Amino acid sequence: MSLGRILFKRWQYTLGAGLLIMFILLALFGTVLYPNGTPINPANVYGPPTWSAPFGTDFAGRNILGEVVLGTRFVLEIAGLAGVFTLVLGVSIGLLTGMVGGIVDTIFMRMIDFFLSVPSYPLLIIIADLIHTQSIVVLAIILSLWGWAGMARAIRSQVLTLKRREYIEAANSLQMPRLYIATREVFPALMPYVVMHLIMAITGAVYGEVGLFFLGLIPIKADNWGLMLNWAYSVSGAIYSKSSILFMAAPLLAIILFQTGSVFFNQALEEFFNPNLQYR
Question: 121-157 burial, b if ≥16 CB within 10 A, otherwise e?
Answer without folding.
Answer: eeebbebbeeeebeebeebbbbbbbbbbbbbbbbbbe
